[in-house]
Amino acid sequence: MRYPRQDYEFEVPDELVAAEPAPRRDASRLLVLRRAGGLEHRAFSELPGLLSPGDCLVLNRSRVVPARLTGRKATGGAVDLLLLSESAPGLWRALGVGVKPGLTADVGDGVSASIEARDGEAWLVRFSTHDVAGHLKRRGLPPLPPYIRGKRKRAGLGDARPEDHERYQTVYSREHGSLAAPTAGLHYTPELLAALKARGVAVAELVLHVGLGTFKPVVADDVAEHVMLPESYEVPQAARDSLRAAKAAGGRVVAVGTTATRTLETVFAGGVLAEPTAPLRGETSL
Questions:
Q1: Residue 26 and residue 47: Cα distance in Å, rounded?
Q2: Phi and psi at residue 191, to the nearest 5°
Q3: Which CATH topology does 68-140 take?
Q4: How far is CA 225 from the centre of its chain?
Q5: CATH number corresponding to 5-64+166-284
Q6: Residues near 265 by beta carbon (within 8 Å), at least 6 away in sequence
Q7: pTM for this structure?
Q8: Which of 1, 57, 116, 195 is the most exposed place for a label (fewest CB within 10 A)?
Q9: C-alpha distance from residue 260 to each of 140, 152, 176 (Å)
Q10: 184: exposed, middle or buried (C-beta count within 10 Å: 0-12, 13-18, 19+)?
Q11: Cα 208 from Cα 282, distance rounded (Å)
């Protein structure tokens, strides 16, 4: 069966692209598709009433790394880097805008970044410090999606804001490692999660670190031929137990977003509900 890419292409009116989040995370809209048919326009805060006791909500608690660095060339031109991974002390793979081999840019606090060579879809970037992680903590920016940054630019707003560091994280995020937020989880609040638990909905947490594959455009004419780059995942014992309990009781397993979905598809395909269990840590290319 073919899945033509053009069937999934559409234009998003600029007025429907938000430049900033709603004041309350759970004030966003929620579209409900009933299995029996029909659509309902609801508020995200209504989610507890849409789930049932015994259901299991699955969250991805990966935390976004402030992996974006901006800098200036000696000529004054702008440089934009998204750091992917460390190849050696001070040497990183990165995506870059406004760069070429041999270029050196000032990325703040007396630290420079030199572009050495191409490395597949990325660049090899050598920093003047080995403590690049520390530099990211001080100067790194959240890697907001281009459509948000573009909307801000068109609206004459700043490219980055201090509040982005927390608003572009889920309230339950813990382990650092993602290059983009698992955005479906951005709408949850501590109060909403408490209401779900009070209703008898189990909450299971797993980890999938969003990687370079999120930024790789789909160019294949058939979407099924698109190659997904691997991303690392971990399903803790507590999450596995919650999944098993929900399935045994006839409850629904509700994955929050594509990152939780692909992790569940991977471990279920490997027999997570069977004995002996499949490894609950690894990489997935689903």
A1: 9
A2: -65, -40
A3: Thrombin, subunit H (2.40.10)
A4: 22
A5: 3.40.1780.10
A6: 284, 286
A7: 0.92
A8: 1
A9: 26, 29, 16
A10: middle
A11: 10
Provide the β-strand partners of residue 204.
58
Domain range list for the chain = 5-64+166-284, 68-140
Tell me which DSSP letter residue 50 carries: H
Q: Please state, in angstroms and rounded to a whole number, the distance separating the CA atoms of residues 237 and 207.
A: 12
The pLDDT tens digits for 22-43 are 999 999 999 999 999 999 999 9
Q: How many CA atoms lie within 13 A of 276 on its CB side?
A: 3
pLDDT by residue (tens digit) across 48-90?
Answer: 999 999 999 999 999 999 999 999 999 999 999 999 999 999 9
Q: Per the structure block, which two tokens stand in for 150?
A: 């573009």
* Distance separating alpha carbons of residues 2 and 221, to the nearest angstrom: 9
The total of other beta-carbon atoms located within 10 Å of residue 239's CB is: 25
Residues 101, 79: Cα–Cα separation, whole Å: 13
